[in-house]
Design goal:
Helices cover 78% and strands 0% of the residues. By secondary structure, the chain is mainly alpha-helical. The chain has a domain at 75-116. The protein starts with 5 loop residues before the first helix and ends with a helix.
């Protein structure tokens, strides 16, 4: 192997650092794009109601309970919100939550029936 001069070594090192920086920038751009897509209303709904694939069976009630449990562990404010909704003072407002939940459920059922 031939020895390279300090100027050549420095030029090689600079080029490697530029390549590494370009790769890191691409990773950051990819992550930002993924975050942007996941924060859209559709992305948020897909995080709660993932798309059905032909390989995965339909979610059972126990899957829903486990998912709810994991969400409550990850986001403790959900338990607080749930207890607030079920408290006596919020029962009058609970009627509107039921209507909203029924609308979301009807929308999901119609979407699933369309997609077959």
């Amino acid at each position: 192997m031939s020895k390279k001069s300090p100027a050549q070594q420095r030029a090689i090192r600079i080029e490697l650092l530029r390549a590494r920086a370009a790769i890191e920038r691409q990773g950051v751009v990819h992550g930002v794009n993924h975050l942007r897509d996941s924060l859209t209303p559709r992305g948020l709904l897909e995080s709660v109601f993932p798309k059905k694939s032909r390989r995965t069976p339909r979610a059972s009630p126990s899957d829903w309970l486990l998912r709810g449990w994991s969400y409550s562990r990850r986001y403790p404010m959900l338990l607080s919100l749930g207890s607030t909704l079920l408290s006596t003072g919020a029962r009058r407002k609970l009627r509107w939550w039921k209507y909203a939940a029924a609308a979301v459920l009807a929308w999901q059922v119609s979407r699933n029936m369309r997609n077959g």
